[in-house]
Amino acid sequence: MDGKHKFFIPSYQRGYRWDDENVTDLLEDILRFVSKDKIAGQENLSYFLQPLVVKSTTIRDNGGNEEEVWEVLDGQQRLTTLYLILEYLGAKNVYSITYQREGKIEAEDISPMSSADNYYLWEARNTIRQWFGNLSSEKRRNEFKYALTESEEDTDRQVKFIWYETHDSESIKSIQTFNRLNKGQVKLTGAELIKALFVLDGHNAEELVMTWNDIEKKLEDNEFWNFISNNDICYQTRIDLIFDFITQNTDGKRDYAYRKFQNLYDYCHSTKKEKVELDILWSNYNGTKDTALPVASMQDAWREVKKVYNLLVSWYEDDMLFHYVGFLAQMGVRPHVIHNQLLQAKRESDHRERWSEEDVRLKLRQWIMTFFTERGRYKEISEIDNFNYESNSELIRRLLLLFNVEVCLNTHNQRFSFNKYRAEAWDIEHIDSQNESALQTAHDRLQLLRNSSFILKREPRTPGQSLRTENVVLAEEIDRFVAEKTHDTDGNVIEDKEVKDLEEGYKELYRKIIKYYACEGGESTATVDIEKKDKHNISNLTLLNSKINRSYKDAPFPYKRYCIIEEDKCGNTFIPICTRNVFLKYYTESSATSSHLDAMRWNSTDRNDYLKAIHDVVDPIFNTVK
């Protein structure tokens, strides 16, 4: 390195990503090398780094002038790290490095917050400073510097790159030059290797990078990503979804898509004789070319990438496809499977030339119904009425999700947020409390009593009613019980977790609260039979954020309603549209009953009207498989 070498890192390459462990490993390796004892007959020792693969090219500097540089195809992580080491050791201008995305590296002027690349550069520089700060031997420090900077005549030990220069005329048959072979290195993702294949194939790098970045930017939009993806597969990078789509990677195997693209690249860059041999090999193996790509060239493959991306965007922008494809994705169906099924349905249709949006809607609804089967039989509309929390919980979860999705689709002005749905955990919530409390700890039980007292006191009093109404009397009884249990004989406060002897009195109060809110149509707490009210039926269930649900536990309906409204007003929590409608009693028929005016109870009229609303929305979908 004589000061004349100028290196250029193109934007299709991964940015600088070495962490402190990678940097420290390199420093320790070089230190062990310079510390080795001399062996007789081996006066000149060399420590060889991995190959530095470069290509001579020209770029324009800031003044618009052409400048000859070495484009780095492989080895940029070590090359950049060595540059930072040399700068620290005071060996200035040994070589320069310019990143197409970030510009020329200036070791003393790195802004860690400006980009991910600069953050890693800044961290690496700090690791280098700290490592040398702990190296107490000045002799070793000098040996280190000489090994990196001096010629063979000046030192008996040298660190060397294996220099590998490629030319445009060369046919590089393997992307091996891009693989990170050392254990200590950060491996390129499959997507980055595929991008490199396109570059090696001769694509216009500027157009490739711009389009690639546009695709990645769209995929980083979580509203878009969470509509089309599911939790079953963890992608290295989100653009891998498109490559899996093209290669039909149904099993989600890591690097499957890259290997198929590599096969296509190798085939396209083989000689005629090699192609014949490959054709025979593939024919003997499975009768087809082992590319799994519906294209004949890398140029066609790139067009396919853009085609698939545009298809996914078109699904996202269409309300019907957004909601139905989004629902199927939540069920674990992958986008290329959806696409294949729609194409197959069109091919098999008697009127494929007139295939319409309604045909697509029907096919997707029929597919959705495959998730409402039991023992190979579709669930019928009449069976929905008997969906039960204890025996049909998964079907109920799917039905409630479908209910919300279909309502959003039918409103035409509100989309269901698969992003917010995916970001949170969800419970099947009992709209009205269960028959028996599931709360076991003293703290949870006392908190339920406090919540119940709070909401009982908020219950409105009708004109002419006595001040000491039943709700006030019950609230006072609860307050006395809580005060008695949370104070000792001297009046000192006892922490909830230390409270003892809560069992008997708590159960009695809990049943009084449940009975009070179970009264409807003139019933009294003395005659109401809470055992006959089926709290596990679908008519008493809705989807709710687990955090909200578990914050109020087994509280009665009015307190749950109060919490939902408060959360909704703040706007910080995603409340599905149907859950909001339930607690606001929008489904209760105001023209037929006064129940919609009673914010304190969720009674049989409310449940029946809610169940009817579910039927109105989902029955047309269930009817598609008659």
In short:
With 626 residues, this protein is an alpha/beta fold. 49% of the residues lie in helices and 9% in strands. α17 packs parallel to α19 (503-518) and α18 (470-485) packs antiparallel against α19.
Protein described:
A six-stranded mixed β-sheet has the order 5-4-1-3-2-6. By secondary structure, it is an alpha/beta fold. Residues 168-186 and 284-291 have low confidence and may be disordered. Helices cover 49% and strands 9% of the residues.
The main pleated sheet reads as: 6 strands, mixed
Q: What gross morphology would you assign?
A: flat
Widest sheet: strand ordering: 5-4-1-3-2-6
The helix content is 40-55%
Which ranges are low-confidence, i.e. pLDDT below 50, for 5 or more consecutive residues?
A: 168-186, 284-291
